[in-house]
């Protein structure tokens, strides 16, 4: 897509969803123009003092909310450590804060992810698990896809004996519009390897997530 020819209504799915090579994004001024249109559509006056700078703020916010299109989250797992002293039990990073955006309504998804793996001689720095979650979350997402992407990335790179990802999140599109229901959370899970085949390992993990 040529930026100089950009029209806000011409973005196609392939422009947005190319996995490894994200498409160029609309220029700042084009985003601001679209946001002014949305302010007017909401029924307000885009030239009013209070909202005059809102389009540029929203453009900046987009860069944060959708930073995940600019990176390959798997690259965070590039550094692995092999001196694990034979540690073979589950490694769990619990309660990773999650901020994402629902692809159906562009409403916030907020919650927590729990990411676990059973090492096969190699471990990663635990902060990289948080970065991995954030990298996939900062895109337009379905919770199911997000859960699977995190798990399969960890499995591909680390090739551990098992991977488990549990995501619990609330969807703004349910709490602020539509059914307008608060206090609901969606729970999604992905089990790979020993977490899928061994029920006691899975149960032990769920116990650890609920509280050590
Ligand atoms: N499975 C799944 N559904 C989601 C997710 N995020 C939002 N949804 C749902 O996506 C659905 C979209 O349904 P539609 O009927 O096309 O849209 P809608 O008319 O706005 O639906 P309502 O939200 O029921 O008003 C809704 O049921 C949302 O609750 C998600 O991560 N996973
Ligand atoms: Zn939604």
Automatic annotation (TrEMBL):
One Pfam family linked to the record: GTP_cyclohydroI
EC class name: hydrolase
Alphabetically ordered keywords of this record: GTP-binding, Hydrolase, Metal-binding, Nucleotide-binding, One-carbon metabolism, Zinc
Family designation: Belongs to the GTP cyclohydrolase I family.
Gene: folE
Domain GTP cyclohydrolase I residues, every copy: 31-209
Assembly and binders: Toroid-shaped homodecamer, composed of two pentamers of five dimers.
Residue positions binding Zn(2+): 102, 105, 173
GO terms of molecular function: GTP cyclohydrolase I activity
InterPro entries the UniProt entry points to: GTP-CH-I_C/QueF, GTP-CH-I_N, GTP_CycHdrlase_I, GTP_CycHdrlase_I_CS, GTP_CycHdrlase_I_dom
Organism of this sequence: Sphingomonas anseongensis
Coiled coil: none
Catalytic activity: GTP + H2O = 7,8-dihydroneopterin 3'-triphosphate + formate + H(+)
Protein name, UniProt field: GTP cyclohydrolase 1
EC number of the protein: 3.5.4.16
PANTHER family associated with the record: GTP CYCLOHYDROLASE 1, GTP CYCLOHYDROLASE I
């Amino acid at each position: 897509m040529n930026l100089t020819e950009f029209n806000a209504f011409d973005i196609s799915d392939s422009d947005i969803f190319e996995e490894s090579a994200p498409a160029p994004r609309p220029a700042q001024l084009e985003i601001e123009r679209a946001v002014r249109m949305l302010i007017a559509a909401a029924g307000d006056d885009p030239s009013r003092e209070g909202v005059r700078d809102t389009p540029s703020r929203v453009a900046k916010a987009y860069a944060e909310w959708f930073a995940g299109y600019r990176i390959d989250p798997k690259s965070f797992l590039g550094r692995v450590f092999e001196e694990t002293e034979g540690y073979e039990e589950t490694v769990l990073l619990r309660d990773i804060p999650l901020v994402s955006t629902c692809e159906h309504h562009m409403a916030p998804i907020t919650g927590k992810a729990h990411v676990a793996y059973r090492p096969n001689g190699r471990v990663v720095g635990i902060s990289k698990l948080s970065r991995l979650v954030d990298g996939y979350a900062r895109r337009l997402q379905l919770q199911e896809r997000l859960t699977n992407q995190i798990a399969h990335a960890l499995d591909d790179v680390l090739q551990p004996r098992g991977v488990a990802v549990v995501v619990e999140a609330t969807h703004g599109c349910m709490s602020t519009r539509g059914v307008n229901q608060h206090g609901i959370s969606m729970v999604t899970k992905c089990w790979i390897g020993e977490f899928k085949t061994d029920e006691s390992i899975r149960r032990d993990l769920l116990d650890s997530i609920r509280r050590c």
